[in-house]
Amino acid sequence: MSIFLTLLWIYPAGFIALNDKFRKDMAKKGIILVVDDNKSVLTAVGLLLGSYFEKVITLSTPERIPTVLSAERVDVVLLDMNFSAAINTGNEGLFWLSKIKEQVPDLPVVLFTAYADIELAVKAVKEGATDFVVKPWDNAKLVATLLSAYRLRESQNEVKQLKEEKNALKNQLNSEPSMLWGSSPEIMQVYNLVCKVAKTDANILLTGENGTGKEMIAREIHRLSNRSHEVMISVDMGAVTETLFESELFGHAKGAFTDAREDRAGKFEAANKGTLFLDEIGNLSYALQAKLLTALQNRKITRVGSNKPIDTDIRLICATNRNIQEMVQQNHFREDLLYRINTIHIEIPPLRERREDIVPLAEYFLKKYSSKYGKNCNMLPATQEKLQEYKWPGNIRELQHAIEKAVIMCEGNTIKPSDFFFKTVTTTFIDKNETLEDMEKQMIQHALDRSNGNLSAVATQLGITRQTLYNKMKKYNL
Ligand SMILES: Nc1ncnc2c1ncn2[C@@H]1O[C@H](COP(=O)(O)OP(=O)(O)OP(=O)(O)O)[C@@H](O)[C@H]1O
């Protein structure tokens, strides 16, 4: 058939509308390889598919398939069943199908076949072809079949990527801990509790201010648990929207909603046999708390759009920086859910309540960032003192960032007190154990630190006389 006739054949008027609909649904993506010895078919199909795929490669001889597959990241192959230069008459399609599968096992291959070859095509599908299209072809069907083969490729890639991430996580979790516990009595109490409960399957609730290391400790619990050979999946409950909650956590069935093109597992299934870490649990809305509770009570979830319950086997760790007890009293958090998640409650102390850990943690981060930035930094004793005196409202996260910044900014390798710029928060931060006198002492100390010995300036700044300042310095031993 001439190219002209073939083009007329593939572009009947009614196809334009269909063509536009598909184009609206899908931006051009992916690489397709079309192999057919009929050059007019190749040109026509090439033109047609150019509207749907990012790149269309055409081959009139199958012998070049292996070279193209090595050079290009092909997503779909459209393969003719019969070539004039026969390798094994009637079975060339099967031969090249097996060659392609040898080279790229998962690559979707759609066969292009004449009516007479239908039986052969069915056999090919049994041997790994994704689908087949009969010649003379229906344009809409050809496009739809190839796009669905492409989506299959996309989801294969997603699964592969997920598996790689899962393996990377497993390796990371099975390796040495990447945290420093410290040795203060406050953190040792936490450490002992963690060691006691890690091997059990008890649900754990970690509470503490932002940056105290709740997620790190959750990872440590998982690493020390009997589930350490499986993954820990983290979900930030504050970031999950109301509408996506069920789909994120429980998964969805194909067609459950507009974008649900494939069946998809949720976080509960992904964490099966491992640990599910629900961060910021205090941010979960009251309505969603009931859905989470049902899943935890029944130990089963049902994907959105499906009615088949799926058993789950997870160890649950939750974390929050909010006062959950108070939230229960104010009817903002369900009491029954709290009982379910806090079989063991571990409170992580803020850094200012474990002062002896500040310098070891600072040294730990100093080593880490020195190596990252190709330096060999150390701290002056005065620097250590300054770090120990600061209140660290952002806890370990703030310390970590402060050290990283100091390593980057410091001239030479010695980190001096002046390499840290703490905001006046030191004097205004209210510790729950602090008295008015403690705060007054801190304010005076802070003003003195910045005064270069000018006591008159300090008195003026604080709005007191020089004599009152002397009296207070004496009282507070400053
Ligand atoms: N014991 C530790 N040793 C080393 N690094 C730590 C330690 N604890 C926390 N960090 C570091 O501090 C940062 C904050 O830790 P993490 O995210 O675990 O805190 P969090 O309490 O979960 O914080 P948020 O409440 O804001 O989610 C992380 O970058 C982590 O690497």
UniProtKB/TrEMBL annotation:
Keyword set, alphabetical order: ATP-binding, DNA-binding, Nucleotide-binding, Phosphoprotein, Transcription, Transcription regulation
BP GO terms, sorted: phosphorelay signal transduction system; regulation of DNA-templated transcription
Sigma-54 factor interaction domain: residues covered: 180-408
Superkingdom of the source species: Bacteria
Keyword Magnesium in annotation: no
GO molecular function: ATP binding; sequence-specific DNA binding
Sites of 4-aspartylphosphate modification: 80
Location of the Response regulatory domain: 31-150
A family per Pfam: Response_reg
Alphabetical list of PANTHER family matching this protein: ALGINATE BIOSYNTHESIS TRANSCRIPTIONAL REGULATORY PROTEIN ALGB, TRANSCRIPTIONAL REGULATORY PROTEIN
Protein name: Sigma-54 factor interaction domain-containing protein
Species name: Odoribacter laneus YIT 12061
